[in-house]
Amino acid sequence: MNFILMAAMSLVPLFLGMSCKMLFKTKLTNAMLIFMVFMSLWQLDVSVLYSNDLISNDQIFFLFKLFRIGSIMLPPAFLYVGYVSLNYLTKEEAKWMKWIINKYTLSVYSAWSLFIYVVNWTDFGVVGLKKLVGLSSQIAVLYPVYGEWGGLFVNHIKLLVVSILLTLITSRKVTDKYVKNFLTLFSLTFLLTYMIGVLNLQQSSFIYSSQIAVMFFSIIIFFVFVNMSTKMIRETAQILKRKEKEEQIEISTSGLIHEINNPLTVVKGYSDLLSRNEQLDMSVKGMVSQIKIAGAHMNSIISNYNQFIKSGKINATETDVLEVIKESLDLTSIKIKEKNVHIVLKESKNMVVTIDKDKVRQVFMNLINNSIEAMEEKEHKVVQIEAYMNNNEIHILFTDTGSGIPAKEWDRIFAPFHTTKETGMGLGLSISQRIINSHGGYIEISKSSEAGTEIKVTLPMMQYEEIV
Predict the structure, then answer these.
(1) In terms of Cα–Cα distance, which of 80, 74, 84, 83 is closest to 37?
(2) Given a cut of 70, is residue 293 above it in pLDDT?
(3) What residues contact 207, with CB distance under 8 A and at least 6 apart?
(4) What kind and span of H or E run contains 45?
(5) What band does 468 get if pLDDT is binned at 50, 70 and 90?
(6) What CA–CA distance (Å, rounded) separates 95 from 91?
(7) 3-state SS, residue 342
């Protein structure tokens, strides 16, 4: 009866791991499933030691050595979870960790574990089983008798602490808050489970407790993992929705631009020919001249709108946002000095995000130039730039001491060809918004008054679809 109950409990990690795999098809889920499989095998290995009233000792001895693959492969399986977690670190953060956790160390660790498993089948490993009596005289349990190299297994299992600590260190460096919290809880909870499981190595300890600990660990981790994955999916959906919006703009307008451009070419060509005809009187030439001017204006609008469409196509790489901000300030430094503007930059560390560096720099330069122009009539000219992380996003605030933007203009300020200036096409902010939206982020006016304006640029730190 004890064996059946414990065997059933042993399958809990396997079923929960498979459920995670079916719900969320990610690399982290694959690592979790592998780990859960070995955890189930570990507990099955413990369960068979209670089956002496159902099957023969020889069969128990064989099954015990067979299922021992679970406890032996747990250390590399846990380290594999840490290895997959490196995908959630930026290249700079993962640089030194990859010297310790990489495919080579993982392969060596796995090969060593398999060697321990092979030894397990020889007389150097487990040589037999002896009968012990548990807390109740009605419960009898078998316990392994180790051979000459039995200490290899014991010390190998203790090495699991190294895997747990490495994964825990990795988790604390993860930028994404959901993954960070999950991996931290995963490592600490399993460390507690492992400490209870170590009681299996002591003859005087009652090993039934490890089954309960593993079952509770599996259930807790399952619910935490589902919660994490659900939030990540929801956040990814919001990012993709903003990107899809930009793609729809491109599809709906690129065809329209093409259709307008064809007749415009005809108008431009014939107006050029007519303007060269000396037989036309002055009044007709004046009308032809107006047609040319209108055609040139229309061509300028199409050209600028085409630039607006193309601005949504990005080539993203891992980049330090602070570096892009500083480059933007360097490229606008002449205008900053000419207008006697004071720049205040609040620096932060670990501001690495996947972006199109050139296009985001264009956005920052545009916002800096807009702030400078907004302070033309002001004596106190200050532009403050602050970047910080919050909720898996990087926020960049551009605050000036300009004349402000009227509240009625807030909803229209990012619309193409809308401008409050006497000169310009009114595409600067609309292109900036399109670039940021194409990154899955957004740009907005946080506040504005006669004392100045604050514009916030938000960029997502994680591209989850690249990790799955």
Answers:
(1) 74
(2) yes
(3) 46, 49, 141, 199, 200
(4) helix 27-47
(5) very low
(6) 6
(7) strand
Task: Report residue 110's pLDDT band, with 50, 70 and 90 as the boundaries.
Answer: very high
Of 437, 434, 385, 380, residue with least CA distance to 403: 380
Backbone angles phi, psi at 162, to 5 degrees: -60, -45
Tell me the C-alpha distance between 354 and 356, whole Å.
Answer: 7
- 407: exposed, middle or buried (C-beta count within 10 Å: 0-12, 13-18, 19+)? exposed
pLDDT tens, 131-161?
A: 876 544 456 678 888 888 888 887 887 778 8
Specify the pTM.
0.58
* Predicted pLDDT of residue 344: 92
Instruction: Report yes or no: 122 and 99 within 8 Å, Cβ to Cβ.
Output: no
Q: Which CATH class is domain 2-240?
A: mainly alpha
CB 451 within 8 A of CB 404: yes
Domain layout of the chain by residue ranges: 2-240, 313-468
Beta strands in 134-263 (DSSP E): 140-146
Q: 193 is written with which tokens?
A: 């489970």
pLDDT digits (tens, 9 = 90+) for 352-393: 888 888 888 888 988 998 889 888 878 888 999 999 887 778
Burial class (CB within 10 angstroms; exposed 0-12, middle 13-18, buried 19+) of 328: buried
Residue 308 one-letter amino acid: F
Strands 393-400 and 442-449: unpaired
The one-letter amino acid at 378 = K
Structural element, H or E, at residue 456 = strand 452-460
E strand or H helix at 194: helix 177-197
The CATH architecture to which 313-468 belongs is 2-Layer Sandwich (3.30)
